[in-house]
Design a protein that fits this description.
Blueprint lengths: L23 E6 L21 E6 L5 E5 L4 E5 L5 E5 L21 E6 L5 E5 L4 E5 L5 E5 L21 E6 L5 E5 L4 E5 L5 E5 L15 E2 L8 E6 L5 E5 L4 E5 L4 E6 L11 E2 L11 E3 L5 E5 L4 E5 L4 E6 L12 E2 L8 E6 L5 E5 L4 E5 L7 E3 L4 E4 L4 E4 L1 E2 L5 E7 L4 E3 L6 E2 L5 E4 L10 E9 L8 E5 L3 E6 L6 E6 L3 E2 L5 E8 L4 E8 L2 E3 L5 E4 L7 E8 L8 E3 L3 E2 L1 E2 L4 E5 L2 E5 L7 E5 L4 E5 L4 E2 L7 E2 L6 E9 L3 E12 L10 E2 L19 E8 L5 E5 L9 E2 L2 E2 L3 E11 L2 E11 L2
Parallel strand pairs: 29-38, 40-48, 50-56, 57-63
Antiparallel strand pairs: 1-24, 1-27, 2-3, 3-4, 4-5, 6-7, 7-8, 8-9, 10-11, 11-12, 12-13, 14-18, 15-16, 16-17, 17-18, 19-23, 20-21, 21-22, 22-23, 25-26, 26-27, 28-31, 30-35, 32-33, 32-36, 34-35, 36-37, 36-38, 39-41, 41-44, 42-43, 42-45, 45-46, 45-47, 49-51, 52-55, 53-54, 55-56, 58-59, 58-62, ...
């Protein structure tokens, strides 16, 4: 389910927002009950106890000084909390071992160098300790004897009375405020400690002097919160003088902000005239804005780069309980102390009383980047209105102005997607003409808003309903609807009241066919085939955009079946053949061709004339509407060997008359072998070539006159044949 709230308080079509810093407050860590639990789980479900210092590393991990638990906790970017230092026992042990096994007390401030080493104020032990990137803890400052500054010597031998905040510069030098010593100390990278601000004997009351001179000659009164600007200048809260002072890179001190008396005033004006109460911690972001908790005014405040002070969280009233999803500057706080701003601009602050770390995400300035357009639609058609908001809205809600002003819409009747960025009207009616529609995009944490959720309205779009008009028609014209099988048919579309045609889609029996053309040709149609065309238009009129033609039904005459017997045969010369024909199916008439070669050509059983050559006879059958089918019978005529005369004598005397013996030329016969034997049975001649002749010799010598025998084997149209006979050779 979407989690969003649409506000009915806004009636203007577009909410005008300013650049105020009012933002939404949520909880980042802690469940509001002091204690120690939750490691390994969501930070919002964990218990912390009097949270104080805050720090972020380059990987986006947030570190919390869990003061009364004597721990340092870490919240990773996924929101999981763990302990990185302390064993929940207040004490001063563990140097040289894992930080998680050490005893610490009141870790109220932390910083990190470029190598990932963490330095923190061990407040109740008056020490500065270090956790290296391997998790090993050591003490680096504060082990000196009471009332010993230790300036100029190793920091480990110096003494702090009440160290409050620690910072580190880009060179790795550490800076520590000491509220009791009224001094700011520096520990350089060689571990040597010096005083950079504050003067006077230890134990002397604080003062307020030295502006525009060397900071180490000035008097301070309770320096607590401190931060280093990107420029390298050091800003600190001179707490009991109720001012913020600056030490520039040359060591010169000045007062930059604060009226110098405690109170709660000055918002939206110069910070030089503002009042606040005790400031425990300062933070400066990458843009040089200064942030601090004003714990006894129950507020978190900001001084921008122009020196203007505002309250960004808290309404100036106290509460020991917390509520999420409220405007940050409208909620009651406990004692906000340390402030942190991450690289994304999210603000975190610790609340000692409410036992939580609160979070203020950067506010947004959303816009409608796609406005709904006026739309003209025909009656019965669909209409859409769309908007698009940037910054990803929590949700959308459409409104309708039908007669009496804008009202919320629901998915009802023709309206769907009323809570979507695109509203759809499924079926526009004539009564909707002139209706207006607008959409509210709901956002959380809008800059300048006075509530958690804000509606940004689109411009109104008007619906114009066009009257209906006559739909066009399309009629199919076929070159013929009654055809013979295999005949081509040309189909064309005849249209009326159709303009701006985009495409033609022909269909044969409901299946798409043909090309994008107003003509379709088919020569393979079957009886009762149905042809139609779908025409698509881009007409801006209210005629239907898709026109369906009528349907053309094709009648294909059934082709009768013809059988002729014999259909392909061979006969001898001068033979007659009786043809027998059968016609199955409906037909109109028939005729034989050539009729002149047939007796009784009007009959289906005619007889041919005697045939001397191969002939074909066609039976032409007419049917349907001028349709014709033809069947052909072929009669092959061949000269058969039984009709041949084989000579029974020859005279090979060289006179050119009857000089050789041979099979007469021009007959239809496939010779296998011709053999001639003498009267004693000796073979004197043999050939398988029908054109080869015997000249009456054997091996080049003349044979004797007398009787011989021939044997001829082969085949004709009637099958295999073997012929034998006597042959007389005359000389």
């Amino acid at each position: 389910m979407r989690r969003f709230i649409f506000l009915l308080l806004f009636s203007a079509s577009l909410l005008s927002l300013n650049n105020s810093t009012a933002q939404v407050l949520t909880t980042f860590a802690g469940n509001g009950v002091g204690g120690y639990s939750g490691d390994g789980g969501p930070a919002t479900s964990a218990q912390i106890y009097t949270p104080w210092g805050l720090m972020e590393d380059k990987n986006g991990n947030i570190y919390i000084g869990d003061d009364d638990n004597s721990l340092i906790r870490k919240v990773d970017p996924s929101g999981i909390i763990t302990t990185i230092a302390g064993n929940n026992i207040q004490g001063d042990t563990g140097d040289g071992g894992p930080a998680t096994q050490a005893e610490i007390a009141a870790p109220i401030s932390m910083c990190m160098d470029n190598s990932g080493n963490i330095y923190f104020i061990d407040g109740s032990n008056f020490l500065v300790r270090k956790i290296d990137k391997n998790g090993i803890i050591t003490t680096i400052a504060g082990k000196g004897a009471p009332n010993t500054l230790g300036d100029g010597g190793p920091a480990i031998n110096a003494k702090f009375e009440n160290p409050t905040q620690i910072c580190i510069d880009n060179a790795g030098n550490l800076y520590v405020t000491d509220v009791v010593q009224n001094r700011i100390r520096k520990i350089d990278t060689n571990g040597i400690i010096t005083t950079i601000a504050g003067s006077g004997s230890l134990g002397a009351p604080g003062g307020y002097s030295g502006d525009n001179g060397p900071a180490n000659s000035a008097t301070l009164n309770g320096p607590m919160g401190m931060a280093i600007a990107p420029s390298g200048d050091i800003y600190f809260a001179d707490a009991y003088n109720y001012v913020i002072r600056k030490i520039d890179k040359n060591g010169i001190i000045t007062t930059v902000y604060g009226k110098g008396t405690y109170g709660y005033s000055g918002d939206n004006g110069p910070a030089t005239a503002a009042q606040w109460n005790i400031i425990y911690a300062l933070f400066i972001d990458k843009n040089n804005n200064i942030y601090f908790g004003d714990p006894f005014n129950y507020a978190v405040r900001k001084i921008d780069v122009n020196g203007i002070i505002t309250t960004i969280a808290g309404n100036g009233t106290y509460s020991d309980t917390w509520n999420d999803q409220q405007m940050a500057n409208q909620t009651s706080l406990g004692q906000p102390t340390a402030v942190l701003v991450d690289n994304d601009g999210t603000i975190y602050f610790s609340d000692l009383i409410q036992q939580v770390i609160r979070e203020i995400k950067p506010c947004i300035n959303p816009h409608i980047i796609l406005q709904p357009d006026d739309t003209s639609v025909c009656v019965g058609r669909k209409a859409n209105f769309s908007i698009l908001g940037d910054s990803i809205p929590l949700g959308y809600q459409w409104e309708i102005d039908s007669v009496q002003g804008f009202m919320w819409m629901t998915d009802n009747g023709p309206y769907i997607n009323s809570d979507n960025n695109t509203l759809t009207i499924k079926n526009v009616t004539a009564t909707m003409n002139g209706y207006r529609f607008r959409c509210a995009a709901s956002y959380e944490n809008v800059c300048g808003a006075n509530s958690v959720y804000t509606n940004i309205f689109s411009q109104a779009a008007t619906l114009t309903v066009l009257p209906s008009s006559t739909n066009g028609t399309a009629i199919i014209n076929a070159s013929s609807n009654n055809i013979c099988a295999g005949s081509p048919v040309i189909f064309t579309t005849a249209t009326q009241n159709i303009q701006n045609i985009i495409s033609y889609q022909w269909q044969l029996n409901g299946i798409n066919t043909g090309s994008n053309n107003n003509t379709y040709v088919n020569n393979n149609l079957s009886n009762d085939d149905k042809v139609n065309c779908i025409i698509t238009t881009s007409s801006n009129t209210c005629a239907a955009p898709i026109i369906y033609s009528d349907t053309s039904i094709i009648n294909v005459a059934a082709t009768p079946s013809i059988t002729i017997y014999p259909s392909d045969t061979t006969v001898s010369t001068n033979s007659s053949v009786k043809l027998n024909a059968i016609i199955q199916g409906d037909y109109n008439s028939y005729e034989w061709d050539p009729a002149s070669a047939l007796s009784n050509a009007s009959s289906l059983q005619p007889e041919t004339s005697p045939l001397t050559a191969t002939a074909s006879f066609q039976l032409k059958v007419s049917y349907g509407n001028n349709c014709q089918t033809i069947k052909t019978a072929i009669i092959n005529v061949k000269t058969l060997i039984k009709e041949l005369y084989i000579p029974n004598s020859f005279t090979p005397n060289g006179d050119g008359i009857n000089d050789v013996f041979r099979i007469p030329p021009g007959i239809e016969f496939n010779l296998t072998l011709l053999t001639i034997y003498d009267k004693w049975g000796n073979k004197v001649f043999s050939t398988n070539d029908i054109n080869t002749t015997w000249d009456g010799t054997y091996k080049g010598s003349q044979c004797n006159a007398g009787n011989y025998v021939y044997v001829i084997s082969g085949s004709d149209g009637n099958g295999k044949k073997v012929l034998k006979g006597n042959l007389l050779l005359i000389r």
